[in-house]
Amino acid sequence: MNEKTKPIYNWSSPLLPGTIVCASYEDFEGIKRVGIFCILYDEQLDGSISEKRNVIACKVSSQVTLAADYSCMVSVQRNTFFDKPCMICTSKVRVLDKVKNVYKILGQLDSYTFARVVKTYIKFSNEVSRQLLDRI
Q: What distance in Å separates the CA atoms of residue 121 and residue 11, rounded to the nearest whole number?
Protein backbone atom coordinates (compact mmCIF):
# COMPACT_ATOMS: atom_id res chain seq x y z
CA MET A 1 0.00 0.00 0.00
CA ASN A 2 1.56 3.31 -0.96
CA GLU A 3 1.72 6.31 1.36
CA LYS A 4 -1.01 8.21 -0.54
CA THR A 5 -3.64 5.51 -0.01
CA LYS A 6 -2.63 4.47 3.52
CA PRO A 7 -5.40 5.39 6.01
CA ILE A 8 -4.41 8.03 8.56
CA TYR A 9 -5.29 7.28 12.18
CA ASN A 10 -7.21 9.91 14.13
CA TRP A 11 -8.31 8.62 17.55
CA SER A 12 -11.27 11.00 17.68
CA SER A 13 -12.82 9.41 14.57
CA PRO A 14 -14.85 6.20 14.86
CA LEU A 15 -13.28 2.88 13.92
CA LEU A 16 -15.77 0.87 11.89
CA PRO A 17 -16.20 -2.84 12.51
CA GLY A 18 -13.84 -4.76 10.25
CA THR A 19 -11.08 -2.15 10.49
CA ILE A 20 -7.66 -3.72 11.00
CA VAL A 21 -5.44 -1.78 13.40
CA CYS A 22 -2.05 -1.98 15.07
CA ALA A 23 -2.14 -1.56 18.84
CA SER A 24 -0.01 -1.97 21.90
CA TYR A 25 -1.29 -4.24 24.68
CA GLU A 26 -0.08 -6.22 27.66
CA ASP A 27 -0.02 -10.00 27.44
CA PHE A 28 -1.17 -12.19 30.33
CA GLU A 29 2.29 -11.98 31.92
CA GLY A 30 2.12 -8.16 31.87
CA ILE A 31 4.69 -7.84 29.08
CA LYS A 32 4.07 -4.97 26.66
CA ARG A 33 3.46 -6.21 23.12
CA VAL A 34 2.39 -4.86 19.77
CA GLY A 35 -0.24 -6.70 17.77
CA ILE A 36 -2.77 -6.53 14.99
CA PHE A 37 -6.49 -6.46 15.80
CA CYS A 38 -9.83 -6.50 13.99
CA ILE A 39 -12.30 -3.94 15.36
CA LEU A 40 -15.70 -5.37 16.37
CA TYR A 41 -17.20 -2.43 18.27
CA ASP A 42 -16.43 1.24 18.92
CA GLU A 43 -18.04 3.05 21.85
CA GLN A 44 -18.12 6.17 19.70
CA LEU A 45 -20.70 4.51 17.43
CA ASP A 46 -22.90 3.52 20.41
CA GLY A 47 -25.41 6.23 21.34
CA SER A 48 -26.14 4.69 24.76
CA ILE A 49 -22.58 5.03 26.09
CA SER A 50 -21.04 8.33 27.17
CA GLU A 51 -17.43 7.06 27.06
CA LYS A 52 -16.01 7.24 23.54
CA ARG A 53 -12.41 6.02 23.79
CA ASN A 54 -12.66 2.23 23.89
CA VAL A 55 -13.03 -0.36 21.17
CA ILE A 56 -13.53 -4.11 21.34
CA ALA A 57 -11.29 -6.01 18.96
CA CYS A 58 -10.23 -9.56 18.07
CA LYS A 59 -6.60 -10.60 17.86
CA VAL A 60 -5.16 -11.24 14.41
CA SER A 61 -2.51 -13.97 14.34
CA SER A 62 -0.03 -15.15 11.74
CA GLN A 63 0.24 -18.48 13.60
CA VAL A 64 -2.19 -20.17 11.22
CA THR A 65 -1.33 -23.60 12.61
CA LEU A 66 -3.35 -22.63 15.70
CA ALA A 67 -6.61 -22.38 13.74
CA ALA A 68 -9.65 -23.28 15.82
CA ASP A 69 -13.45 -23.26 15.58
CA TYR A 70 -13.58 -19.57 16.43
CA SER A 71 -11.02 -18.31 13.91
CA CYS A 72 -11.23 -17.17 10.28
CA MET A 73 -8.50 -17.32 7.69
CA VAL A 74 -7.84 -14.05 5.88
CA SER A 75 -7.14 -13.98 2.16
CA VAL A 76 -4.03 -11.90 1.42
CA GLN A 77 -5.29 -11.51 -2.15
CA ARG A 78 -8.53 -9.87 -0.94
CA ASN A 79 -6.85 -7.93 1.88
CA THR A 80 -3.59 -6.70 0.38
CA PHE A 81 -2.56 -4.72 3.47
CA PHE A 82 -1.50 -8.07 5.02
CA ASP A 83 1.91 -9.32 3.92
CA LYS A 84 1.39 -12.97 4.91
CA PRO A 85 -1.43 -15.41 5.65
CA CYS A 86 -3.16 -14.81 8.95
CA MET A 87 -6.35 -15.51 10.83
CA ILE A 88 -8.73 -13.54 13.02
CA CYS A 89 -9.28 -15.19 16.40
CA THR A 90 -12.81 -14.17 17.37
CA SER A 91 -12.51 -15.76 20.81
CA LYS A 92 -9.42 -13.66 21.63
CA VAL A 93 -11.23 -10.42 22.45
CA ARG A 94 -9.63 -7.32 24.00
CA VAL A 95 -10.73 -3.87 25.02
CA LEU A 96 -8.34 -1.30 23.57
CA ASP A 97 -8.11 2.40 24.34
CA LYS A 98 -8.14 4.36 21.07
CA VAL A 99 -5.75 6.96 22.54
CA LYS A 100 -3.34 4.80 24.56
CA ASN A 101 -3.28 1.54 22.57
CA VAL A 102 -4.32 1.97 18.94
CA TYR A 103 -1.73 3.77 16.82
CA LYS A 104 -2.21 2.79 13.17
CA ILE A 105 -4.89 1.65 10.72
CA LEU A 106 -3.82 -1.02 8.24
CA GLY A 107 -7.07 -1.23 6.28
CA GLN A 108 -10.65 -2.47 6.13
CA LEU A 109 -11.53 -6.14 5.61
CA ASP A 110 -13.22 -7.01 2.33
CA SER A 111 -16.94 -7.71 2.66
CA TYR A 112 -16.62 -11.50 2.18
CA THR A 113 -14.00 -11.89 4.92
CA PHE A 114 -15.83 -9.48 7.23
CA ALA A 115 -19.06 -11.51 6.86
CA ARG A 116 -17.16 -14.68 7.84
CA VAL A 117 -15.67 -12.90 10.87
CA VAL A 118 -19.13 -11.72 11.97
CA LYS A 119 -20.61 -15.22 11.63
CA THR A 120 -17.70 -16.78 13.51
CA TYR A 121 -17.89 -14.18 16.27
CA ILE A 122 -21.65 -14.77 16.65
CA LYS A 123 -20.97 -18.51 16.94
CA PHE A 124 -18.49 -17.76 19.74
CA SER A 125 -20.85 -15.25 21.39
CA ASN A 126 -23.68 -17.82 21.33
CA GLU A 127 -21.44 -20.30 23.16
CA VAL A 128 -20.60 -17.66 25.78
CA SER A 129 -24.34 -16.98 26.19
CA ARG A 130 -25.07 -20.70 26.52
CA GLN A 131 -22.49 -21.08 29.28
CA LEU A 132 -23.79 -18.01 31.12
CA LEU A 133 -27.44 -19.04 30.84
CA ASP A 134 -26.63 -22.57 32.03
CA ARG A 135 -25.59 -21.03 35.37
CA ILE A 136 -28.91 -19.19 35.98
A: 25
